[in-house]
Amino acid sequence: MVDATTRFFEDLDRRGYEPLLAKTSGTVRFDLHEGAQTRHWLLAIDHGRLDVTQEDREADTVIGASPVLFDDIADGREHGLAALLRGDMTVTGDARLVVQVERIFPGSPDARGPRRRFAGEVH
Fold first, then answer.
1. Which residue in 27, 66, 92, 123 has its CB near the most CB atoms, within 10 A?
2. 55, 40 contact by CB (below 8 A)
3. Which among 98, 105, 8 is positioned nearest to 52, based on CA atoms?
4. What is the pLDDT of residue 69?
5. Are 31 and 40 in contact (CB under 8 A)?
6. In the record, which residues are listed under signal peptide (predicted)?
């Protein structure tokens, strides 16, 4: 069974372009820490064009979180900026990218409004 984080990043990679990020360029690395192990996801954005890899390389912004927390964010059960403000996530580098990238994460399953769920999700 594939976790919510993997589904989220695979969906972004398949999508290849995200209009919500048309004015955004940069790289964001997500470091998911669990004990001594860290799983990496690198999101490269070039005016909305997306490329996702699992590389551990330099990035403009690095976001650190536990895999459990990030699964909740990727599934819409948790809000990333709220987790950051609580101190449950860390950010180094260009914090503006965090705000821009936050738009592509799904909203709460029971939320109302324009935030969309990601394409790979089963309703």
1. 27
2. yes
3. 8
4. 96
5. yes
6. none
Which tens digits make up the pLDDT trace of 73-87? 999 999 999 999 999
Domain coordinates in residue numbering, the chain: 4-102
Dist. CA 69–CA 12, nearest whole Å = 19
- Sheet with 25-34: list strands edge to edge: 49-53, 37-46, 25-34, 61-65, 90-93
Choose among 87, 103, 28: nearest CA to 63: 28
Contacts of 57 (CB under 8 A, 6+ apart): 29, 42
Alpha-carbon distance of 101 to 103, in angstroms, equals 5
> Per residue, what are the HEC states of the chain?
CCCHHHHHHHHHHHHCECHHHCCCEEEEEEEEEECCEEEEEEEEEECCEEEEECCCCCCCEEEEECHHHHHHHHCCCCCHHHHHHHCCCEEEECHHHHHHHHCCCCCCCCCCCCCCCCCCCCC
Topology adopted by domain 4-102:
Nonspecific Lipid-transfer Protein; Chain A (3.30.1050)
Q: How far apart are CA 7 and CA 104, in angstroms?
A: 13
